[in-house]
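Priority: low. Protein: 4-hydroxy-4-methyl-2-oxoglutarate aldolase. Input follows.
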Amino acid sequence: MPLATAEVCDANAQSITNGELRALHPIFKIYGRRPVFAGPIATVKIFEDNVLVRELLQEKGHGRVLVIDGGGSMRCALLGGNLAQLAQNNGWAGIVVNGCIRDVDEINGCDIGVRALNSHPMKSNKKGVGEKHVAVAIAGARICDGEWLHADSDGILISTTELTV
Ligand SMILES: O=C([O-])CC(=O)C(=O)O
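Result:
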């Protein structure tokens, strides 16, 4: 059974105080077939350009969660049905997007967890601008590559190390 985020918070008050455990602001909508997912984080920082998202999702996921800092843009989608399918087939656990997605019905059929701000029908630029595996700041929290993400119906937690009972 995955750890419930609420129980994790109740059992780790000290980690919340010292910043080892952070909750993202509740600004994300829930997509994908997995409402509960967790894994080590890979980060990517982009703006209205998703070439690096495809590059990362082409790698084997090994249960990782891709955190996409898209700067909160409401002007195009950074993830669509093809990329979500790629993520599923390559063994990613989930994708959190500080930005928009499209092909929502296809994404909701994929066996991964997806959180995003909203949907948008337009595709992004394809220039390949951005940075992989850098620290990002989204939804009120700083997130480093290699930290852990836990998502369930109550919200999304970031922890410096894997959470255990
Ligand atoms: O290629 C894109 O920009 C995203 C997309 O539509 C998909 O993954 O199907």
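Helices lie at 5-11, 13-17, 51-57, 81-89, 104-107. DSSP finds five helices and twelve strands in the chain.
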